[in-house]
Design goal:
mainly alpha; about 290 residues; about 0% strand
Length: about 290
């Protein structure tokens, strides 16, 4: 297959995966149960869906594949567990636009952690993007503290920061592990989440009408998006992948507005606009730098 065909294939698969992921926030909002119960069922069902994919992919090698994850993979799974906990908390307690804008800064956290833990050099453009990103996130979080809007909560905004940090750490740890273990790590994170949430949750209190939302969320959206967003990026430069993932930042709040009429706060428009513009310019500069000179 030609490089152009590979690129188009990666573009189509990655975009489809992100589009499948965009209703995630809406489904979380539609499930009317407490956060811990939602986290428990999200963990259990996501584990089931992803483990089924592992069985199809690895067959008789499945057990050995999971056993080979190692300590670094387990730490990455724990970081993914933290990101799920913070993400659901953020979506439940602040405006979806706030949460998704802040979470979109994950690549900046990953770059910082890669510098600290992997000693990887960070380009000047990334340092500039980090400073602007921190300022934009600070503005969104600070607007809540100063009463700048009413749709969100300080807890939710801080949880979104925690989600971005945990996700950035998980990606860094997986880079350090340097293995083809993404499926195993995310699958293990599901069962870890269920274990963490078990004690404070009330699993049998889930409403019958919420079961359908849970099934779609955990057995369609999560595994479907995972498969496509791990296959597609193999054919694309990392900056281009980052640009495609910004679709969730835009479409996630749109679905919530369309179904639940939640108006994004003013701070999300201002701070989010600055952050997204920064990420777009950063990705564009990264693409230019990655292209071989003529």
């Amino acid at each position: 297959m030609s490089p152009r065909s590979d690129h188009l294939k990666g573009l189509a698969i990655t975009t489809a995966g992100v589009l499948v992921l965009t209703p995630d926030s809406l489904l979380i909002r539609l499930i009317e149960t407490d956060t811990w119960t939602l986290l428990f069922w999200r963990g259990v069902l996501s584990f089931a869906g992803l483990f089924a994919i592992a069985l199809v992919r690895y067959g008789g090698e499945t057990r050995a594949r999971f056993a080979a994850v190692g300590a670094m993979g387990m730490w990455a799974a724990l970081a993914f567990t933290g990101s799920s906990l913070f993400f659901v908390t953020a979506i439940k307690t602040t405006a979806v636009a706030n949460a998704l804008v802040i979470v979109s800064a994950t690549p900046l956290f990953a770059a910082l952690f890669s510098r600290v833990f992997l000693k990887e050099p960070v380009p000047a453009r990334t340092w500039v993007a980090m400073v602007i990103g921190i300022a934009a996130i600070g503005y969104i979080v600070g607007a809540e503290a100063s009463g700048g809007f009413q749709n969100g909560s300080m807890l939710g905004n801080l949880a979104a920061v925690g989600c971005a940090a945990c996700m950035g750490m998980a990606l860094t740890l997986m880079r350090k592990a340097r293995g083809d273990n993404a499926l195993q790590v995310v699958t293990l994170a599901g069962i870890m989440m269920a274990i963490v949430a078990l004690a404070p949750s009330t699993p049998l209190s889930i409403r019958a009408e919420d079961i359908g939302y849970l099934v779609v969320l955990c057995l369609v959206v999560v595994p479907g998006a995972f498969v496509m967003t791990t296959i597609g990026p193999r054919y694309l430069p990392a900056p281009e992948v980052g640009l495609i993932f910004l679709l969730e930042t835009v479409l996630g709040p749109f679905w919530v507005w369309l179904v639940l009429s939640e108006q994004p706060p003013e701070a999300a428009f201002i701070g989010g606009g600055v952050l997204i513009a920064t990420l777009v310019v950063h990705a564009w500069l990264g693409l230019r730098a990655s292209r071989p000179s003529a």
